Amino acid sequence: MFCVDYREPRNRVGLLRRRGWTIAALVVSFVILIAATSAFGQAERATVRVDGRAVFRVGAAGEQTAAERARAIERRLGTLLENPEAIAPARVENSTTNPADRIITVASVPVVTVTEEDARENLVAADALTASWAEIINATLERGRDDRVSAWGRFRSEVEASVRTAFAGLLESVIKIVPRVFAAALVIGLFGGLAIFVRWLIRASFHRAFSDLTVENLVKQITYYAIWGLGIIVAASALGFDPQTVVTGLGLTSLALGFALKDIISNFISGILLLALRPFQIGDQIVVGDTEGSVERIELRATQIKTYDGRTALVPNADVFTSRVINNTASPERGGAVEFFLDYGCDLRRAISVIAGATSKTDGVLETPTPIVRLKNLTENAMQIEALFRTDSRRADFMATASLIRRNALNALKEAGINLPDSNLRVLKTEDENRLKIAVSSDSKVAAGDGQTAKSAGGTEDL
To answer: Which of 66, 222, 237, 453 is deepest in the core (most CB within 10 A)?
Structure first.
């Protein structure tokens, strides 16, 4: 006998493959989180650039995002620079729609509206921020007008503006994104290490306190993936996403994801139910459809079964949950039957006694209940005898016990002189041949009777 450790897979390639699937699932989940939070850009601030040089930064206003508002201001300043002679000093005017807002105009052209939100974001009063932005706009327009005095200067300024804008945007993105990505990666690493440590801790504690591997697997997997999910949410927050916005975005796409991932969700829910209801446990030998073997792992996606020929089968949990499952090891004992075929010419009562004795003396056969040997069927060429016995439910013990019963019974029958039917000899007779045999037998009996009568008569005459 040998022991198999069902806690860890012995195939390292399979372990690496499962880890790869876990990492891929985490990456996909992270991408879904990023795609679901399209409102992230609305809370950012954008830089207004003229000729590639930063002027000031603005936030969102009304229905405009920060980026849309910055591009609108750049277009207005660019339009003014198209006619340098018409440029006048910037002026500040009060808004007619909102008295708290200030409008900066150049040559009667409204360039930017300074709102109370802009003042709060820059931590200054609205009038002070308006005066500061007006001075910056005047300096920017003065510099742009000097650069556009000649045609060559205009061409040079356009080229420089394109190059500066490209590199400035790249540098700004790097400065803004890289630290957040690094922070998110650090959070993912910390939560990943925490999930692995908690899984190991649960395994160690359950191994000492409990012997139910199925409950251990349920608690271990739920805790492991819950920590990973929490880590993804915290990582999304480190990237600048609002967790509430993430949940809202996922809620809006849940219907589409439900149709697209219905099989995965079905397997996930079936896995939870299998781990909670426990129709079988890790280490049990089950039959699911055409698959039979020992249960090695019950994951949230599939049940891993080690077949008796050494192969590993992954059966989707939905198929396991909805299919007819036979648990061969649910009970410690298992009933079995071994069949024998005996010749019609043998002593049936003696043959049954010999088979019963050989079955009872076989190692692995339980004494209680006592094995039963019975005549099961009468075939054309032999009598079918069936020996019923009880043994250990593990398949290895069951198959070994059944094999020993056959060997011991065969040897006992040979020692007792009981012949088994010869499977290579078959006598086929037609109905006409049987009738002819019966007629010949009848004529022979009549002739024999006449001869005996004649002999008796002759003896009398002699006397």
So the answer is: 66
Residues 6+ apart with CB under 8 A from 212: 206, 281
Q: Could you report the per-residue pLDDT of 332-356, keeping only the tens digit for each?
A: 788 888 998 888 888 888 999 999 9
First-to-last CA distance in the chain?
A: 88
Query: 48 and 141: one domain?
Result: yes
The CATH number of the domain holding residue 354 is 3.30.70.100
Question: Quick one: pLDDT band at residue 216, thresholds 50, 70, 90?
Answer: confident
What's the rounded Cα separation, in Å, for the pair 130 and 119? 9
State the pTM of this model.
0.45
Cis peptide before 369 (omega within 30 of 0): yes
Q: Containing domain of residue 383, as a range?
A: 333-415
